[in-house]
C-alpha cells in the first residue's frame, strides 16, 4: 500500500482542506452504504479539522442550498452528510472523568459535535465515546468495554476478513494525529501495545505523554479502515515525519509507519511538519 503525501502551506489550509474532504467522504458513505462511520483523533490538528468542519457546515447551511444540493460535491462547496446516519468513534482516549477538558471527546464536542447534535440532527447515541473513569477502572477494562461497543456495530457485509474477525464497523475514514515522538492514537514508541494483535482495543497504563492511562485502537483495528488520514502540523513534528518517510524505519521507533488504510493512506502535512523531508524520501 503506497502512502500519499499531501502538503499544505500552513495548519489552517490543511485543516480546511481535510475538513472538506472529510465531509465529502461521510456524505458519500451515507449515499452508498446508508451510514457513515468516522474515527476521530485528538491533538492540535485533529481538533483543528473539526473546528474547520463546523465552519463549513455553518457556511453551507447559511448558503440556503437544499439537502440534495448540499450532498453534491461541487468545486468551492462542501458536501454535507445526512447527520442522522453518521457515527463518530475515537482512535484513542485519555482515561479521565467524563467531561474533563483534556479528554479527546470533550474537545471534539466543543469543536463540532455539540453543535451537530443541537442544530443538525446528529443523534447523541451516534457519538461512541471511549469509556471514562466512571465506567472503567483501568485502561484494560476500558479497552474491553469499547470493543463491546464496536462489536454492536460490526459490519455484516464482511468484505474484509479482519474487520469481520475483530467485529468492527466499516470505518470510512480514520483520522490520526502524529506526536513529536511519532506516536499515533495511544500507540507509543517501544510499548507492548504496538504488537498487540487479534483484538481491536488495547489499554495503556503508562503513557509517556500525560495522562498516563489511555485506551487505544490497535494496529489491527486501524488497518481495517478504508481511509487512514494522518494530519500533522508544526515544526515539532518535522523529525518524526522525516523518520516516517525514511526507508526501513520501524514501527517500534515511529509507530505512525504502522498505520495503513485498506484503500488509502494519506499523510496531510503542513510546510513546517514537512520541513525535514528530503526529495529522496518522498520521491519528489
Ligand atoms: O495524546 C495524543 O496526541 C496525539 C497527537 O497530538 P498533537 O497535539 O501532538 O497533534 C493525538 O493524535 C492523540 O489522539 C492524542 O490522544
UniProtKB/TrEMBL annotation:
<comment type="pathway">
    <text>Carbohydrate degradation; pentose phosphate pathway; D-ribulose 5-phosphate from D-glucose 6-phosphate (oxidative stage): step 2/3.</text>
</comment>
<dbReference type="Pfam" id="PF01182">
    <property type="entry name" value="Glucosamine_iso"/>
</dbReference>
<dbReference type="InterPro" id="IPR005900">
    <property type="entry name" value="6-phosphogluconolactonase_DevB"/>
</dbReference>
<dbReference type="InterPro" id="IPR039104">
    <property type="entry name" value="6PGL"/>
</dbReference>
<comment type="function">
    <text>Hydrolysis of 6-phosphogluconolactone to 6-phosphogluconate.</text>
</comment>
<comment type="similarity">
    <text>Belongs to the glucosamine/galactosamine-6-phosphate isomerase family. 6-phosphogluconolactonase subfamily.</text>
</comment>
<dbReference type="InterPro" id="IPR006148">
    <property type="entry name" value="Glc/Gal-6P_isomerase"/>
</dbReference>
<feature type="domain" description="Glucosamine/galactosamine-6-phosphate isomerase">
    <location>
        <begin position="10"/>
        <end position="267"/>
    </location>
</feature>
<protein>
    <recommendedName>
        <fullName>6-phosphogluconolactonase</fullName>
        <ecNumber>3.1.1.31</ecNumber>
    </recommendedName>
</protein>
<keyword id="KW-0378">Hydrolase</keyword>
<dbReference type="InterPro" id="IPR037171">
    <property type="entry name" value="NagB/RpiA_transferase-like"/>
</dbReference>
<dbReference type="GO" id="GO:0017057">
    <property type="term" value="F:6-phosphogluconolactonase activity"/>
</dbReference>
